[in-house]
Each structure stands twice: as structure tokens, then as C-alpha cells.
Design goal:
With 581 residues, the chain is an alpha/beta fold. 33% of the residues lie in helices and 13% in strands.
Length: 581
């Protein structure tokens, strides 16, 4: 971490010695909680330059990064690129809605001008030979790629039990709403624990308040940049947005090109924006999307971009009036007892329920019609047709021969798509296959390459793409049947709904399987109750952010953004992290 801070300070220090190409701003302007439209207006009025925006953000990184670990790498040419964009502005050339604005990318998104590592020790220093398509789109829209964000190693498909936002390169990322380490040590076993159980440890340096998912929203929450791009296979945009009081958009799979993004599986992977407001997220989404399908990603023909890729046209304050919004009570709000079980599961705790009850009141007062609905696959009494009994094959419990009752989409897709990604790197690839990566990790275990082992990589590498293809195809059909046909689509059609309202990021998994979109909005805080048992007496855990999610069917982002924006304007509950002025 110290070597990165030296870079930050050196780059920020250029502000004092490189003459500006623009006149000084007429009045002070602060980037803290500034929105994209506010920053654009300030630059248009001559109050601040792109170079000065970058300098302010680099200064904040230098001041606060040591306590958060939100950054894997900073762009050493960020100031130079900002100055070039200032010159373009002065000449009357504006590239797009992000012209001159600093944006960060998750470190699994290719940048040919700085490393892309996925957080893996084997990929330290890897500079890909090509940019991700979305990187190209952002640069064309005028963005300054200021940094690569912290992430869970290889998007959390390495090991069972690895804490979120941990990777072998940089360790643990911390949540700015409570940037402390977990104070627990070795937790005692429950009295009824099986004899094979081992006590769980929490003294490995992990954060007490999770950052959520494999993407990091901590830098955006802490005002290190204007917004950031995350990626999601099942929850890694929605969960960190929820945990960091951000507005996030998990797009329909294919709306944003995946070319040049380190994969888990093309069946579910997508990149998406994370920002402090719905408006900022909508602007970033439009800049990421192509005006035409990407020839390198066939899925990009799935949805049509709006005119001029402008999603802000759908942001209307009265969008909730007359909207029909479904409340999927079973499992997501209320406990359910699954077929073959006597013990209820799921549902909300008291604080979460109070937050969602309040959100529903807001929606009703805005003129939305609220309808309780069942998701058929969630309440199905036939175990073979129940979504909650159909999990994801992961780890040693789901190796070949033991994986009949779970979806192999992720473990199969990782073997197929990760190897294809490595091949796309050509001679720059540090390893040539998933097998070579596993072998490299074992050979460098004493350097911390696999602190939590590599069970997910192991279960993927045992896949035979030809022999296991039939199971993968059957599993994908079942994924779509349970999550879409008798899942989200059935619930939406049952009452002619515009969207489903999920608490926090709880709807991520059902939407992920068919690749459906969700927009999450900051709303409340709830007590932090980390998994594994209570925190020690006397430890004052700070509240955890908590959002609400609007989910829909494929390509419904315009509708969902309208609903989310109207809700946000009525509530405006986001607050910046404490102690970071």
C-alpha cells in the first residue's frame, strides 16, 4: 500500500509544479458529493478544470486510501489526460457527457495503458494488449480513467470462504461507513454443530462491515472519483452498491459489451455503473453502451440503446404515478418453509422490515399501486420446480458426480470463458490455461497466492467441456425456467407489473440467472449483524447502509431507471461516510 501512496502523492504533486492551461476558477469548487451534472456545469462556467478535478480526487486518495484500501492502481497519466481534455474543451470540442470527468474501473476491466490484474498474484503487472470495449466507449465519451478499484480476486471465483473484497495482491478492502477490522477471533462452535465442524476465524484482518460483492464501491462512496464501473455475475454490482449507499445499475446481460473483461461466465457476466445518484449512474450507463452491437460480443444485440444512448430522458420525477410494483413477499420479505423441510428460512429482520415498510409507504404516496405477488418458482411445492432448492455448484461439495442438484453454469463457464480470455492475451498471458494458473498458485502459495485455497478454481478445472456440455445445457435451461419463465416473468405477468421491489440486494441471484436488470437506490441504515456470531460486548458497530431494488425483465432499464429516480428524488437518503470531509 505504501508504494501506491507514493505514486498518488507524486502524481498529485504535479499540480504544484505544472502550469495550468486554463485560467483559475472564479470560485472554489469541491468534488465532495458533487454530481456529474454539477461538475460539467462548473467546468462549462470556468469554475474548475478537468485537471483540477483530477487533482482534488488524487489528493483525497492520498489522504484517505490508507484506511480504506479502495485502489489497486492509479493512472500515472491521469493529469496529462485531463489537461488534453481541457484543451479540447477550450477549443470547443466536447466528446460527451463525461468529458473531463474522472472514473474508476474494476480491475478485471482491460486498460492497455495500466495494469489489469483481477487481484491475482499471477497477473501482477499484466498490461493487456487491448482495451475493453467499454473502456474505449468511456474514453470516447471523455472520461479520464483515474484508477482501478479493489475487488475480490477473480470476481470471487477462487475460494470458498474468502472474504469479500480480498485479493492476494492488496489484501482486504474496507467500508468507509465503518473502516475497522473485525474484532472477533476464534468463534466457538454451536452446541449442535457436527463433529466434523471447525471453529470459524475472524482474526484474519477482514473488515467488520462488509463492502459487498466482488466489485468495490468504496472509492465512489468516499469521493475518490465521480463514479465507477463494477461487474456482476450474481450480486457484485448490487451488493456493493447496497453496502456503500450507492445507486447501481446491473444491466441486462449484453447491453454492455463484456469484451475485455476477465470472465466467470458469459452466461451471466455483465459490467455496470455505480454512482452516488441515479442520474450519474444513468449517464455512465449510456457512455458505456455502444451505439451498435460489438462484433466481439454477440450478446450486445440483445437490447436496443435509447436515442443518443441517453438514459437521462427516462428520469422523470412523476414516474411512480400509476406504476404497478410487485412485492414478492415469500422468502424475500417473509420466511418460507421449503418442500421437505420443517424449518422456515429467509425473510427480513425487524430493522430491514421497517425500512421496506417505509419504502412501500413512499411508493404509495407517490401514486404507485402496490401489489403483493408470489414468484411461482419460489413457492413451488414440487422440489424439482423450486428455485430455492436449485443452487449454484461451487466448491468441493459440488464436484463431478455430486452436482446433480445444482447449476453448473458458473463452474462450466469459468473453464470455457477464462481459458478463451487467456488466449486473447497472446504472448502477454502470464499463464496459458486455468490449469496453469492453479499450478502457479500452488507453486507460489508461500507468497500468499491462495491464502484461502482455490476450491472454486479446482471445481471449474475438473470440467470437461465436451463431456459436461449436456449437463451445462440442461442446467441453463433450468436456470431460465426457474428464474425467468416461472420466476420474474411469471410474477410480472401475473399482475401486469412494471417492476418487482426487492429489499437491499436480495433479488440479485434470481435476476442473475436469466441476465435481467436491476436498479438499486440508497434508502436506509440498519444494524450491522455480520455472519458468524455476535460482535464483542462494548464494540460499537456502526450502522450498515441499506437500499431498495427495482427489478424487471430483459431490457427494461428505461422503466426501472424512471422508478428508481422518482423514488430517489422523494427520499434522498444518501449521506457521505462520516469523518471524510
Amino acid at each position: 500500500m505504501r508504494h501506491r501512496l507514493a505514486v498518488f502523492l507524486a502524481v498529485a504533486g504535479l499540480a504544484a509544479c505544472v502550469p495550468s492551461t486554463q485560467p483559475p476558477p472564479a470560485a472554489p469548487f469541491s468534488v465532495v458529493e458533487a454530481t456529474i451534472p454539477e461538475m460539467q456545469a462548473a467546468m462549462a462556467a470556468g469554475r474548475i478544470t478537468s485537471r483540477e478535478l483530477v487533482t482534488q480526487y488524487l489528493t483525497r486518495i492520498a489522504v484517505y486510501e490508507d484506511g480504506l484500501n479502495a485502489v489497486i492502481a492509479v493512472n500515472p497519466k491521469a493529469l496529462e489526460q485531463a489537461e488534453a481534455l481541457d484543451r479540447e474543451r477550450a477549443a470547443g470540442k466536447l466528446r460527451g457527457p463525461l468529458h473531463g470527468l474522472p472514473v474508476a474501473l474494476k480491475d478485471n476491466i482491460h486498460t492497455s495503458f495500466m495494469p489489469t490484474t483481477g487481484g491475482a498474484l499471477a497477473f501482477e503487472g499484466l498490461v493487456p494488449p487491448y482495451d475493453a470495449t467499454l473502456t474505449t466507449h468511456l474514453i470516447e465519451a471523455g472520461a479520464v480513467i483515474i484508477a482501478k478499484t479493489m475487488m475480490t480476486e477473480l470476481a470471487n471465483w477462487v475460494a470458498n470462504g474468502m472474504p469479500g473484497n480480498y485479493n492476494a495482491l492488496e489484501g482486504y478492502g474496507f467500508n468507509p461507513y465503518d473502516p475497522r477490522r473485525d474484532p472477533r477471533g476464534l468463534m466457538p462452535l454451536a452446541p449442535n454443530a457436527p463433529s466434523s465442524a471447525t471453529p470459524q476465524r475472524f482474526d484474519d484482518g477482514r473488515p467488520v462491515l462488509g463492502t459487498g460483492g466482488s466489485s468495490s464501491g468504496t472509492g465512489t462512496a468516499a469521493n475518490f472519483w465521480a463514479a465507477n464501473v463494477g461487474s456482476e455475475t450474481s450480486g457484485s454490482i448490487l451488493s456493493p452498491s447496497n453496502q456503500n449507499m450507492l445507486a447501481g445499475i446491473k444491466p441486462t446481460v449484453g447491453r454492455i459489451s463484456r469484451y475485455g473483461v476477465i470472465p466467470i461466465t458469459a452466461d451471466q457476466d455483465t459490467a455496470g455503473p455505480m454512482a452516488r445518484t441515479v442520474t450519474d449512474a444513468a449517464i455512465l450507463l449510456g457512455a458505456m453502451e455502444g451505439s451498435a452491437p460489438d462484433p466481439n460480443d454477440a450478446a450486445t444485440s440483445a437490447c436496443q440503446a435509447p436515442p443518443n444512448r441517453d438514459y437521462t430522458a427516462f428520469l422523470k420525477a412523476d414516474a411512480l404515478k400509476g406504476a404497478r410494483i410487485g412485492i414478492p413477499r415469500a422468502s424475500y420479505y417473509d420466511q418460507v418453509t421449503l418442500p421437505g423441510s420443517t424449518e422456515p428460512r429467509g425473510g427480513l429482520n425487524a430493522a430491514q422490515r421497517a425500512a421496506m415498510d417505509e419504502a412501500i409507504v413512499v411508493l404509495r404516496q407517490a401514486g404507485a399501486e402496490i401489489i403483493d405477488v408470489d414468484i411461482p418458482s419460489v413457492v413451488a411445492t414440487d422440489p424439482a420446480k423450486n428455485l430455492l432448492l436449485w443452487g449454484t455448484c461451487a466448491g468441493p461439495a459440488d464436484v463431478r458426480g455430486k452436482d446433480a442438484n445444482c447449476s453448473s453454469a458458473l463452474k462450466y463457464g469459468m473453464k470455457r470463458d477464462f481459458n478463451a480470455w487467456l488466449a486473447s492475451l497472446g504472448a502477454s498471458a502470464p499463464v496459458k490455461s486455468l490449469t496453469e494458473l492453479r499450478e502457479w498458485n500452488l507453486a507460489h502459495a508461500n507468497m500468499g497466492a491462495i491464502k484461502y485455497a482455490q476450491a472454486q478454481l479446482d471445481v471449474s478445472d475438473e470440467v470437461d467441456l465436451e463431456r459436461d456440455r449436456a449437463k451445462w445445457e440442461a442446467d441453463r435451461r433450468k436456470d431460465i425456467e426457474l428464474a425467468a419463465t416461472t420466476g420474474i416473468d411469471a410474477a410480472l405477468k401475473s399482475a401486469n407489473l412494471d417492476a418487482l421491489l426487492f429489499p437491499g440486494a436480495s433479488g440479485a441471484a434470481i435476476s442473475a440467472k436469466p441476465g435481467y436488470p436491476t436498479v438499486i437506490v440508497p434508502f436506509a441504515t440498519v444494524p450491522n449483524t455480520p455472519p458468524g456470531g455476535p460482535l464483542p460486548d462494548g464494540f460499537n458497530a456502526r450502522p450498515a447502509p441499506y437500499g431498495v431494488s427495482f427489478a424487471g425483465t430483459a431490457c427494461s432499464e428505461p422503466t426501472l431507471l424512471g422508478l428508481a429516480y422518482a423514488f430517489e428524488q422523494l427520499t434522498k437518503r444518501r449521506v457521505p461516510p462520516p469523518g471524510m470531509p
